[in-house]
Amino acid sequence: MITPPPIKSNSKIRIVSPAGKIKEEHVKPAVEWLEQQGFEVELGKHVFAQHFQFAGTDEQRLNDLQEALDDPDCDAIICSRGGYGTVRIVNKLDFTTFAQKPKWLVGFSDITILHSCFHNLGFASIHGVMPRYFFDSDGNPSESLVSMMKLITGESISYSVDSATFNKKGKAEAEIVGGNLSIITSLQGTKYDLNTDGKILFLEDIDEFLYHTDRMIHQLKLSGKLDNLAGLILGDFTDMKDNESPFGKTVHEIILEAVSGFDYPVCFDFPGGHDKKNLALTFGCEWELEVGEGITKLRLK
After folding, report:
1. Which fold has domain 158-300?
2. Which of 128, 146, 248, 298 has the highest CB neighbour count under 10 A?
3. What is the rounded CA–CA span in Å between residue 233 and residue 210?
4. Domain 12-152 adopts which CATH fold?
């Protein structure tokens, strides 16, 4: 995997909106903060455009992202938000110029499509916080932002989280891949399908029915995506829903049942995804995972 160089105090960062629309008030404070840190920030021409639920038309969103990929002076691309829409433009992207000067891509949720695309092309990327969630309720840089900035500036980083009830103990050293469960399952059978063999798979999701989550997990299992993992990290599964006739299992029980026959370590409740704390991960880089009795440790190698 090719890892883009760390950004520096005078690096140029582009912010684009490849999916859902977003209000200016949710981005401008992040721009001001980045500029205060010494970065040059350039917004895509259509960052605040609106076309129904999208941040502009497909062509507008595509042009902004392509310009950012091609910009020889740009060192990082931060997506303004997820939502929906990246799948409509990803197959029209040209990475020829980008490959001559790789740069970091940051985002999560619908941006999982771009993470998978980058991974299949051989480039590392960052699953991390986007501008609306840069700050905590007091207006201070959130822990999510701090973790993302450490990764993008090349600092060493490690996480320690309390072990969850359903954890499966063990150790693994491997690349982390993954992202949003719904997006990952939707990419199966396409050229953006994710190869999970020998990797630590990270999964998170939001606003899904339990029965649908069960279907997606079993789709991954039936396709062999869970067979040869080095490890499995489950992030936040936020605002999960049930039917009037209960499914009968929690999301943790659904996943644990699906991986019960495998001997790799499994970490539940890692603070990553759509909850308040979204600790950043570099996809395509090697991490050391240790799921212990009371503490789970994750360290970038």
Report:
1. Glucose Oxidase; domain 1 (3.50.30)
2. 128
3. 19
4. Rossmann fold (3.40.50)
